[in-house]
Records
---
Amino acid sequence: MSDVIIPGTGDWHFGVAGIVYKPFITLLEKELGLIEGTNLFISYYDWRKPIRHSAKHYLYETIQKAKEVSKQKKVNIICHSMGGLVSRTYAQSFYYKNDIDQIIMMCTPNAGSPPNLSYWTGGSLPITSGEKFNLVRLYMEAYLWLLPKIHHTNELTAIHHYFKGLHDIVPSHSFGSYLLCKQSSNGYTPIPYDSMKTQNNILDNLNSKPKKLKKRKIAVTLIAGIGEETIEYFEVVPSSSKKDWIDGKVINALKTEAGDGNAVLKSVFAIDGEKHVVKGTHNEVLFKSFGIISEKLEIEDAILNDFYLLNEEYCLLLLKGKGKIDIFENEKNCTLNPNHTGYYQLRINDLTCLFLSEQILQSHSVNYSPTEKETICYIIIRNSERLEKTVEITPHTPYKILESGGRFS
């Protein structure tokens, strides 16, 4: 997050995603003895932009800075999810400076990921993903709700104009046919990738040169998560719209447990490299890969204690309104300090983003106090639950959005 992404959010930082990445950086510093700014560098990038843009204007510049500060000729890159595609794009580019020793990729969808096709062509994932909390889906749905409100346009136009990086992580040719067109009682007909209107040109190009990383003597380690229900195929029906669902409207998903909840095993392993499998979610794999990372960096492995284990039970609230949100602790009759662990709040003009752990929700309620009569709209995303409301309220009585225990009002 930064002013580049959403004006008013300041210099580069992890934003809401800090719930995952801050503990991971702490892990690298405390357990492996790395020092940020000395031999550990974070490459923030504008994930809304095409991956080629992020590789050239963010990762490349971070690598040059790291080389200059450390006086080293080469770097090791540790990357997660989309970050692995940014790393590959630079490593396989024409402007590559022969300055990468190895790339460690965790949960990188090297052949793309089906849910992103649904978001790109329809603006949503109109099916439940199961009862288990999925942090990536929460982030995606929240941002796509926010995007058209920031830019004052419809959802699909906002996505295609302001979130072009999303198109670079839809499935590619090497993923195989993943859309199954429903043919009434006659079953399904797979839609060939070559006949689809939505294709991933950047991954098709990267994957068409499978030996390039090896030729450039870059060691590749691939770490995939398994054991979580992950979308592998979509059931679709034809769409009459020329703008929405151009390859078929998603009505159902077929899932596999050979994935981390977001990236399937075959996509992570779609390129050559040393392969590892870890049981865990898309975010848990970061922490469960610690031993592999320390071995690859040739740093003595430390014992991973429970401090670094991720508790993925959170509720996200996005609200558009001029008033004030308070997190009220009922037993102590007081409001919660914004710096409290498990509580993240971001305010930009009349938009508020609130991220609360389930532990806090059990004993707190969420109240909204307007300064004048106004109409507010908000969305709450929690596990498989989703509530969206538009409410007209008055300034006399605080409006309760969530009851204690996380119950919807």
---
Amino acid sequence: MLIKTAIRRVVLLSCWLALPLHAAAPEPVNKALSAAEPPQLIWCLDHFPHFHEYDLSDTPSGPSVNIMQELARRAGFTLHFTPRTSLARCLRLMQQGEVDLMSNLRYSKERSAFMTLLPYSDNVAESLFMRITDQRLIDSKVQLSSLTLATLRHFLFNPATMALIEEESRHITQVDSIELALEMLLRQRIDGLVAPTISTTEAINANSSYQHRFKIAPLDFSAKAPNSVHIGIAKNSKHAALEPLLRQHLQAMLADGSVQRLMLTPEQYQPLNPPKQQP
């Protein structure tokens, strides 16, 4: 009986948690937390190139990981993370209170109903990706009606792009990942992909078979209105009462420049590789 119980515990843990992120010992920033065992918070995350990635490893890396580790160190909690999990499943687990944290989230009324959203970074740039052999010059949103496009399922774009997607919904397919959308684009099943600029560029540059196969159209997807990305804290989490503490330390990280330092700027990522010049 003891053996069966032990096996069951191992299976459950392996389903939900990877090894805890190794960070410096938490500072005693709060008497209530430092006097007892540090709270154990679970961060649910997918594979989002450049920001948090699971490339050939069970341990995620990237600017989002750096920020979450620093927040855990300052606030005095132990950070665990899920294995690579789809965005849709992370949202469901947050709603159920089975996980505690998410990051890189845009605000929506629906999301705010089951999580508290703390802004920490500026808007994520978006672009239209096309095959490099496609000779059409797309520099106006009106031209999109002539294209078959793909977007990322459950990903919230800036409000202007979301409105455009709604208008052109009959021409748009939703897919679960950037990699799947690029494969569809390469196979000419779609004409273009509307997706986050940095993450999609990173996904292209990381795959040798994708390099020199895609281009970014000159269409401007920038939005004038601020549209921050957020860290989400599940309202049904057993650690939901820590929200004021996390908010306090996140604000301190913003004020002292830590977030800016840990979040690589767009100038620091590798731009889309240009095609090789023919001799």
---
Amino acid sequence: MNCCRYDRKEEVFRKKLREVRQLLGSQGNLSDNEAELIIEAAVLEDRELKQFHTLDLLWLVDRLFLTTRSRLGILTPLVEDEEVTEIMVNGADNIFVEKNGNIFRYKEHFDSIEELEEVMMNIAGDVRREINELNPIVDARLLDGSRVNGVYKNIAINGPILTIRKFQDEFMRMEDLVKNGTVTDEGAELLKILVACGYNIFLSGGTSSGKTTFLNALAEAIPKEERVIVIEDSMELKLPYIENIVHMECRNSNSSGAGAVDMKQLIKSSLRMRPDRIIVGEVRGGEVLEMLNAFNTGHDGSLSSGHGNSISGMLRRLESMYLMAASLNIESIDRQIAEGIDIMIHLGKLSSGRRRIMEIAELVEYKDGDFKINSLMKLNREEVLEKTGNEIEKVEKIFLKGEQYASKLQELGFIK
């Protein structure tokens, strides 16, 4: 087939696909090994294909097997490739892949819109969700934790859209983030102490800036004896080092429009579970009201994140999200924000593709119509996170937690 035109190659595939589906369907329940043997025989014993190169025949066997037996179809090799970080399907004919920081067009494509839709339905079904004309948008995850967004053809102009953001099987620890330059040793030590001492911390950053990865690494500093409630839209955080943990995930409504459970409900419910800390994976709307209530009602050391272009920009976004849930004046909202959040961390993705902490700041108070932000560390022009020279102003939690933490921060120059 390598000497034939591309459309001839696809014509052979479609013809064999119909034949293979009939063969497999007539055999009843088959194991993958049995199905693969049937597919190999259908291809390698076909006299009409003897003229084709062996490599092309093996490609055909592999493509037929993925299409008929894998729940992810032709995306399976991409999902299994540890170097692939993002898979972007723009309709059946256009698949783009991010690998090692570079984006390129994938050589394969789905045979039809229906084949792509079947993969999307498989993914949604694995986490008890639906995607169809009545529920045209789905946020889900693969069994390995990779984040998935699907948009059905009735609202996507160029066909069904599927985006998969992959996560490593092994979560990154803080020392890994120090090694890859995301944060410095000093910055990592500061943040670990702040988490241990019970500071409420909020992470901001743009898409693919590393918020989930960093939130996972931060949570490792939570004392082992504490009970932690984790709430996410789709489960992404991996926290194996926390023993007393409850992990809850939102749920979409079913085809009858019933059964939906949103983040607001889960946060409210978590307050009755005797949490020491609450981790809200990401806030996007009115659930910020419940998140701040949790931060303000004795659950010291809680963590959350959101999309923002800077610390000040994130604070304004929190205002807007709060207004989605309550008609309060801005000053009342800002006071709630300032009282609930102690530390803001902003992450960014540089033009080189590297992820960095751009700033670590203390949210001191809201006064005279503005937030008082005390910047502790900032990324300099050489792309290194350095101390600003400012000291932490709200030190009560540090000294209450223990002299060892205060001594370390004094040594680092963050408190007197």
